[in-house]
Each structure stands twice: as structure tokens, then as C-alpha cells.
Write a structure and sequence with these properties.
Mean pLDDT: 84
Shape: elongated
Number of helices: 15
Number of strands: 7
CATH architecture of the largest domain: Orthogonal Bundle
Largest sheet: 4 strands, antiparallel
Strand order of the largest sheet: 1-2-3-4
CATH superfamily of the largest domain: Intergrase catalytic core
Order of helices and strands: EEEEHHHHHHHHEEEHHHHHHH
Length: 348
């Protein structure tokens, strides 16, 4: 049996195997196991220090593209990252400044509203940056987002579908004109407040029907969170969960694949329902605004509301991601239920 001797230094340790010394350990999230190519302990210590210095220098060279890839590999969503990478991908993290982010947002989305720039440029960039900070690839930094114009001369942006809440009667009047597959997804959005991209990736093993709890492993911000299940959704989710794998699929039985700047395979379903119902102000994000507004109407505490919607980012919220919380379940059940909606065949 080969004798193993261990000698520690800094973040790495020297491990003797078969007479030679190896540098082994973890630095900045990377596993390291490198031979010093020497049997001399004193010489091995010198080589170990050089390996640590090389790792330190390498950390300074991580690019935004590398950070994006690692973020996605750990469950982060790639939506909108392609466009950002095309502009910032080759830039080293520590060379990126606020002006670079602002210029990128203007080049990509300068023709859009402030909200769109936030959603498609600043939010995904910051999520990747925070992931890189967690890897110790760069330093924590506060990034400025576009501010709302002030003053009486500010031009009010054009209201688009999805930016305003609607009543649940209005939502049902729209959804009843959809085929079952997209209707199931939209119904779940209206009774969870989840982001569409979170629901696209939801798998059956992350849905706990008995405890009325959904675990979202990677949200838009890159942090896991828990979502309470409304009693209204139990029959629907129980049936979908029985299929295994991805919970929501297209009419062809394929997983929804979010596309950058688009609504995936739901675009045609939304357009068809608008034509048949005559309702033009409902889209995927209408559900999230509606849940938020309805919770306020029901006098739900702002902290509870923020946790349901995934706005809360304190350590306590992250700690209990997988633990059903009765206060959140009670709050989600204040959302009103339309009897005709409950009786839809695909709901039962």
C-alpha cells in the first residue's frame, strides 16, 4: 500500500504519494491536484507557493464569458446572456466598469423601455457577477440600474401587455380560450407568481404536493427559493407531477425552451387566445403583477409577499428554501378562485 503523507500550507496542502509531492486542495472553488515533480520536501514547498501564485494570477484573468458559463453550469438561466456575452464576453471581470455595462445596455436595448433594459441587461449581468463573487473570481460591487425619470416633463412610457395587473375574472376570460397545455402553465403562473422562466424549468421532483411547496433551485437572481402552492392548483399539479420529469410541456409533449427576448413556444398560443377572446392586455408576466397586486389587496405583509415573489434575498429566506412555511401557504391561498375556472376539465 502506498504511504500518504500530508503537509499543509496556505489554501493548498502537500501530499506525498509514491515518494513524490503533490499540491492538493481547493482555491476559489477550483479543485487542484498538481505534481510538484520532486521528492524533496523543501523544494516541494517552493513549488507549492508558485502554484498558489499562479492560481491567484489566473483568478484575475477570468472573463465575463467564463463567468456566464460557470453560472449556467450551476443552474443559472442563460436567457439574455448570449447578447451580453457578444459584447462583454472577452472582457476580464476586473476590467468591466459601470460605463461598460451602461454602454452595452444602450447598444442592445437602447430602443426599449427602462424596464426592458433592467430585465434583459442589468439583472442577468448582476446575477452572473454575484455568482463570480461567490467563486471569489472578482470583488463584490454595487451596480447602478436605470433610474425612473423625475419631474413633470417626464414622458410616460407606452403601457404594454404584461405590465399591469388584471382581475382573476379577466384572466379566466382570456385563459378559457387557450388549449390545455398553455392554459395549464398560465394558470400556474396566476396562482404562484413565479417567473415564466422558473416554471419552464420546473421538474416534478421539486414539487411537494402534500406540503404545498415548490422548490426553485435557480431563480432569475441565481438564488434558490421556495414557492407556496395554492390549494386551487393541487389537482392540476398532482396530475402533471405524475408524468415525471419536466412539469410543463408544449402541445407536442416537448419541454418549453425559453428564447432570448422572446416567449418561447407560447407566443402563438398567446396570440391565438387574444384573437379568440378579444382581450389584448394579458401576457405571461401579467400573472406575476396580478399575484403581487392581489396579495397587497388581501393585506398580506410586504415581507411575506416579497418572499412569495422571490424578492426577498436575506440569509434566512435562503436557509429555509426547502422548508414549507405556513405563513406563505396561508398568504397564497388568499388569491381568489373562479368557480368556472376550477371546473375546467384540464384543471381536474
Amino acid at each position: 500500500m502506498t504511504r500518504v503523507t500530508v503537509e499543509r500550507r496556505g489554501d493548498l496542502k502537500l501530499v506525498a504519494r509514491g515518494g513524490y509531492w503533490y499540491a492538493r486542495g481547493t482555491m476559489y472553488g477550483d479543485e487542484i491536484f498538481v505534481s510538484t515533480k520532486t521528492k524533496d520536501r523543501a523544494r516541494a514547498r517552493v513549488v507549492l507557493r508558485e502554484i498558489e501564485r499562479q492560481v491567484e494570477r489566473g483568478i484575475q484573468d477570468h472573463t465575463f464569458a467564463q463567468a456566464c458559463d460557470d453560472y449556467a453550469a450551476h443552474g443559472g438561466q442563460r436567457t439574455y446572456l448570449g447578447a451580453l456575452t457578444s459584447k462583454l464576453g472577452k472582457r476580464k471581470l476586473n476590467d468591466i466598469r459601470q460605463t461598460d455595462l451602461d454602454e452595452t445596455a444602450r447598444e442592445l436595448y437602447g430602443h426599449t423601455s427602462r424596464e426592458t433594459q433592467n430585465r434583459q441587461a442589468y439583472t442577468p449581468f448582476i446575477a452572473v457577477w454575484n455568482h463570480a463573487v461567490g467563486n471569489e473570481w472578482t470583488a463584490a460591487r454595487t451596480w447602478r440600474r436605470p433610474r425612473k425619470p423625475k419631474g413633470t416633463l417626464a414622458i410616460k412610457p407606452i403601457t404594454r401587455a404584461g405590465t399591469q395587473a388584471v382581475t382573476y375574472e379577466h384572466a379566466w376570460a382570456f385563459i378559457r380560450h387557450m388549449s390545455p397545455a398553455p392554459a395549464e402553465l398560465l394558470a400556474t403562473l396566476f396562482y404562484t407568481g413565479m417567473r415564466p422562466i422558473e416554471l419552464f424549468a420546473l421538474r416534478s421532483e421539486h414539487v411537494d404536493i402534500s406540503n404545498r411547496w415548490i422548490t426553485v433551485l435557480s431563480s432569475k437572481t441565481g438564488e434558490p427559493r421556495g414557492v407556496p402552492i395554492h390549494d386551487f392548483l393541487v389537482p392540476l399539479l398532482e396530475r402533471l407531477r405524475g408524468n415525471g420529469g419536466v412539469m410543463f410541456r408544449t402541445i407536442r409533449g416537448l419541454p418549453y425552451r425559453p428564447r432570448e427576448g422572446g416567449g418561447g413556444q407560447l407566443r402563438s398560443a398567446i396570440a391565438g387566445a387574444r384573437e379568440r377572446s378579444g382581450i389584448k392586455d394579458v401576457s405571461l408576466y401579467t400573472a406575476r403583477h396580478t399575484v403581487s397586486t392581489q396579495l397587497v389587496i388581501a393585506s398580506v405583509h410586504p415581507h411575506i409577499k416579497d418572499q412569495i415573489l422571490g424578492h426577498a434575498a436575506d440569509n434566512m429566506s435562503r436557509r429555509y428554501t426547502h422548508v414549507p412555511q405556513s405563513a406563505l401557504i396561508e398568504a397564497i391561498n388568499t388569491l381568489p378562485v373562479i368557480d368556472e375556472w376550477r371546473e375546467a376539465v384540464w384543471m381536474r
